[in-house]
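Protein modeling request. Please complete all fields; requests missing the sequence field cannot be processed.
Requester role: graduate student
Desired output: 3D structure, token encoding
Chains: 1
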Amino acid sequence: MKPLLRTIKVLTAAALLTAHAGTLLADDSTSLTIYSKARPGAVSPELYRPLPGTSYNASYWLGQIPGYAVVRQDRDMDIPKGTGSINFTDVASLIDPTTVRFTSLTDPDGTLVYEQDYRFDLIGSQKLMEKYIDRQITIEQIVGDSIDQYTGTLLSTNGGLVLKTDQGIRVMRSYTNVIFPELPGGLMTRPTLVWQTYSKTGGSQTARVSYETKGITWWTDYNLTWKEGDNPNKGTLDLGAWVSIINKSGASYHDAKLKLIAGDVNRAPQGGRSRLLRNRNDFSKMEMMADAAPAGFAEKSFFEFHLYTLGRATTIPDNSTKQIELFDQARDVPADKLMVYVGQPYHGWSYSSDPFVQRDFGNQSNKKIDVYLRFKNDEDFGLGVPLPAGRIRVSQLDEADGSLEFIGEDIIDHTPKNESVLIKLGSAFDVVGEHVRTNFLIDARRKTMSESFKITLRNHKDKAVTVIVKESLFRWSNWKIAVNSHEFEKINSRTIHFPVTIEPDGEQVITYTVHYSW
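Delivered output (518 residues):
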């Protein structure tokens, strides 16, 4: 037997039951400023697809999209004279009602909102059932080739519909339609702010409203093309940047003025009582859209952060990912290819007030040599702009067929102008290392230790390579290199670098001894 199709009918205002995939904020005065807490690349595409069998699940998305936005709108509305009530609809489903700000641009001194309710008890089949407990409904049920109707008082919805009719009590576990005589009060077809207002003049006014919504975030995706030069350790790169925006806020923002804040903006812990904030100056401070022809993003310092303002209106649909170019591609930026060898794997040690005297550490050896690209965010080469945190994907041209092939990716933090950017791409295939501890002595009475190492690097390429050998002197802060086969550079109080060049199919052996005392 085929499962029976269950539907629900309301005999009044049927259009009110149309499903809302998301509110459309569509007037020209919509402005959207997005703040991101997302680790670039960490939000999987699986996170912004609807849950199986659902079109939207606000409680799920509330904790999944690590960002938020401030929505600002100018709307014309009729405001009652004296005290009155206004339903403010078309807001994002994930609105934070404690952040709502209101001001009348027409009568800022004579109009205010003094009380607010946020109504999110939205229409649904289960909500309708709950509202009609102890009230009369009609149920349709297929019997053979006909449809029978049963009208009575709904007593319960647990384990089926329990209906009290003139013929007795019926428990109906299968049915096709439920017919309600009217739409019950208290239910909304969309999230609504209900305001209690006072206005000296009333009438048609332009109101400016802003609020914060969760469920929206952004980050930067960088596309980098590496071009190797005659020197295998140097080359150039082309760099382009795109803003990626994920919107699961429950609203679509049509022809909106878009702004992005880059930086680590502090957030107070969630909590506190609901309150309506009123400050007629909050909005004018944020209106910085340039009066210019359609263009890309313009960047400027904003407090201790950076503000990126899109020079044209854009539409950001609900349940979507949108990408917008952040800046024009920079070409032929000088860059270095670095190989770094960390022979001793990280053991999870932390520096403490006592020397690290355990004998077991220092014997392990890592063979992999990591490969990095490094470039300077310099204006002389088409950059020199603040680079927001983002994911950098690196490709290289295969000259055999002219195609770009992916060679690695990394995450960068917010990077000011004139600072260097370091990108880890992976591990070298043809260059390997070996790290061996050759001696370890400790004299607890004299409070001294000495440790010796032999580091072997082998290059199987047909070109010379330069490798930076990074050594961590983790055992104690008071140390001295007693014997060393190669020159080294002291990076900090517990790190030294040995830069060495290895000829094609060649080998380099570094030895050194370190003395600790305390």
